[in-house]
Amino acid sequence: MMRASPLPYLAGFSLLPVLLFAATPNPAANLFACKAGESSCERSRLTPAELAEVTVAEHARNVSSCRNGRSSCDRSQLTEAEAISVAVATHDGNVSNCTGGIEPCDPSRLTRREAGEVAAAGRQRHISNCTDGIGPCDPSTLSAAELADVTRGQRRRAVSNCKDGLGHCEHSELTAPEAREVARAERERNVSDCTFGWDTCDRSRLSPREAAEVRAAVGARNLSDCTDGREGCDYSLLTPSDTREMARVERARNYAACASGSGYCDRARLTPAQAARIPPETR
User: Fold this and answer.
1) 254 within a domain of the structure (yes/no)
2) Does a structural domain hold residue 282?
C-alpha cells in the first residue's frame, strides 16, 4: 500500500503565516480608517490609546456634521457649548442663504429685522437682474424710479457690448457720441487683433500708419519665432536684415552646441578659428 506524500500538506502549512500576515491590516492604516469613519475600520484591533483618538475624531466629525446640516448629525452627542455654536451657525447659514436667494432657505426662522433685510436684498437682486439682463425680471414690479435706473443701466450695457464686440450691436440705436466711442473702440480692437495675428483682423480697415505699426509688430514677433526655432516662424516674412540676423544667431548657436557637446552641432558650418577653439574631448 502506497503512503501519501506529506509535501502538499507541508507546503500549505508553510504558506499559512504568509496568508495570515496578508490578512492582517496595517495598524496605521486601520487607525486612519477608524478616525475617518470608513467601513474598513476594525475597532477590535485598536489599542486603548488609539481608541481614545478615534473617539475624539468621531466627536469632531459629528460636530462638523451638525454645523453643516448633514443628516448624520447626532445632536444628543453635543456638549452645551457645541450645541449653542451649532445653533448659531445654523441660524447664520439660513440668513445667508435667504439673503443670497440660495436654497435651502427657511423664511419662518428669520427674525422680523432679518426678514426685512432679506426682502430688500431680494428686491435689489431683482433690479440687478433687470439691469444686467441676467436672471428673472418682472418690470411691472418696479417703481418709476427703479424702472428709469434699469433703463439707463440697460443702455450703458448695450453701449459697452458694442464697444467690446460682445453679442449683437444695434449701431442704429446709438447716439452720435456713442457711435464715435464705439467706432474708436472697434478700430483699436481691430489693430490689436491684427498685431497679434488673430483671425478677426481686418487689414482693410487699418490706416496707413496702423498698417505700418502692425507690419513692424508682426515682423518682430516672426523674427523672434524664427530665432528661437518656434513653429510660428514664417521664413517668407523675413526681411534681408532679419535673414542676416537669423544667420548670425544660428552661427552662434551652432558654435555653442559644438563647443559644449550639447545640442545639434553641424561642424561643417564652423569657421577654422571656431573649430580650433573646440576642446579635443568635445570634437
Assistant:
1) yes
2) yes
- Between the alpha carbon of residue 81 and those of residues 63, 66, 90, 145, the distances in Å are 11, 13, 14, 49
**How far is Cα 65 from Cα 72, in angstroms, rounded to an integer?**
6
Residue 22 pLDDT: 47
* Overall domain count for the chain: 1
Domain membership of residue 268 as a residue range = 239-283
> What does the DSSP 8-state code read for residue 69?
T
Provide φ and ψ at 239, rounded to 5°. -85, 165
pLDDT confidence of 237, banded at 50, 70, 90? Answer: confident
User: For residue 256, which amino acid is it?
Assistant: A
Q: Are 126 and 149 spatial neighbours (Cβ–Cβ below 8 Å)?
A: no
Side chain identity, residue 206: L
Q: 71 lies in a domain?
A: no
Judged by average pLDDT, the poorest of 155-159, 164-168, 185-189, 219-223 is 164-168
Q: Which residues contact 130 (CB under 8 A, 6 or more apart)?
A: 137, 139, 142, 150, 154
Please name the amino acid found at residue 17.
P
Q: Which residue has the cell 467601513?
A: 39
The C-alpha cell at 93 is: 447659514
Residue of 260, 259, 229 lying closest to 246 (CA atoms): 229
